[in-house]
Design brief:
about 140 residues; Immunoglobulin-like; six-stranded mixed β-sheet; four-stranded antiparallel β-sheet; 10 strands
Length: about 140
């Protein structure tokens, strides 16, 4: 039988965990499904505030975070349905997908990569390098 003190401590710990999840703005169950392409695992989404908050909460755990934005007035807008292609240093395509929302998180090995993001035929390019245990955030912005 547990002592009253240990039961109170367990309840406080559980409520602290619940608070940490709620403080982030969303439960982790709100994350979109993880997908695999070759050796790369990734997720994309962020439609709706709850899902966007969940993705932002876990983003630092992924070596690569991509964000897609349309410059607009009075306020910038998030974009979905952006075609993403990532090539390694040898020019081999390691990820070729369409983002389901304004965020794409990918578990990438260390290395140099060429990124391209295509929104309705308007393609943006970036060259990046990911080092071990590093998080890279890349924002693609298109003019309206």
């Amino acid at each position: 039988m547990k002592s009253k003190t240990s039961m109170i401590a367990a309840a406080l710990a559980a409520s602290g965990l619940a608070f940490a999840v709620n403080a982030a703005g969303a439960p982790l169950s709100q994350l979109p499904a993880t997908k695999m392409q070759g050796a790369i695992s990734y997720l994309s989404g962020g439609i709706g505030q709850t899902e966007a908050n969940a993705i932002k909460h876990v983003a630092k755990g992924y070596p690569l975070e991509l964000e897609f934005v349309l410059k607009a007035k009075p306020k910038d807008e998030y974009l979905a349905n952006v075609k993403v292609r990532i090539k390694d240093a040898h020019g081999k395509v390691v990820l070729d997908t369409t983002a389901d929302g304004p965020f794409l998180l990918a578990k990438m090995p260390s290395g140099k990569y060429a990124l391209s993001a295509d929104r309705d035929g308007k393609v943006e390019h970036r060259q990046i390098e990911i080092a071990a245990k590093e998080h890279r955030r890349v924002v693609f912005v298109w003019a309206s």
